[in-house]
Design brief:
eight-stranded antiparallel beta sheet; 18% helix; alpha+beta; 8 helices; Metal Transport, Frataxin, Chain A; disordered N terminus; globular; 2 domains; Thaumatin
Length: 397
Amino acid sequence: MRTRTLLGLLTALVVSVPLGSAAVAQAAAQPPSLLPLSVANNSGRAEQVFLYVLGTDLASGKLGYVDAAGAFTAWSGGSNPPSPAPDVAIAGPGNGSTTTIQLPRGISGRMYMSFGQKLTFLLAQDGGLVQPAPWAANDPNRDVLFDWSEFTYNDAGLWLNSSQVDMFSVPHAVSVTGERGTSTEGQLKPGGRDAIFDALAKEPGDWAKLIHTRADGTRLRALAPRLAMEVADGFDPNYLDGYLTDTWNTYKSTDLTVVPFQFQPNLKYTGRTGGDGVLRFKDSTGKEVAAFPQPATKDVFGCDGKLAAPNDDVVGPLARTLCAALHRSTLGFQHTQPTYDGGEFYTRPVTDHYSKAVHANMVDGKAYGFAFDDVGNFESLVFDGVPSSVTITLTSF
């Protein structure tokens, strides 16, 4: 979850708007020290649900876990090789019921939910937590049905999203109620889970390889392409290469204009690909500000490597924009980016069919299909500066 970037954007918006007395009073309101977090189980499944609230204490930087009452405890112990972490599972709700726990202010992390079995976490000697990685063949959680939501809760409020950046498994909606009213994201269409798996299974090429099915026939998850590439005989690591070559060649003779911030329409950068195959951007004064060699398929699906996005005001926003446009297969066709017309996304044969399937089966079309799906605000994120309650709903599947 790209919380630091979101916080930077919100800060910029606040300082650009004069505050009246009512706004000042509102800004002074503090989020509660403990925020009620309810998990509603509407899954229709009979298995026992287990919950885990894990993350980083923002004041100390320590990793740890939160119990049902909202108390944070830092991890201790650990070994090399990593050893099993203590069992910190919270009993979750049965089908048709709700469990409410407390989320302490000042933490950023994940809430895991698993069905039928507890998850295995490991502690390294340096106090690091080894989280489930079911794309690895020897991971003990590989055949467990589970998923997670990501959150940051601090003095500026709550950010919560349902994330499919690594995988899609358990359909769940996220909702927050507070000073802005109630907002909900991540609601899957009826039958959407099966529709996502079916779309990937039918797509020509390696897309069916994203799906992991348990021995009992349960389709547990679909991995994001960047992780499916790490699996033996997994996803084609050269899938996007032809498209990337064509795109970088397009900008040898055509200007690419990037307007990275929708609230700053006059801030523009112009890109051209040079004879060395590097896409270079200049600002309005003609000064070069960023350069991007042609990325590989793994760089795009991971939004990393040659498309790494530092947390700055220029290179990072440019990299984010490029990566989003490549996932959505608009770069090379739409020469001003980002493109805000979702109808233009995923319309070409070579595209991110994983993200396409996830978005197509969301009620409002919003999801976190890849790391920078928040470019253009197409992500499944809720926020409130002074939240009073938050709900994660496990929806029917």
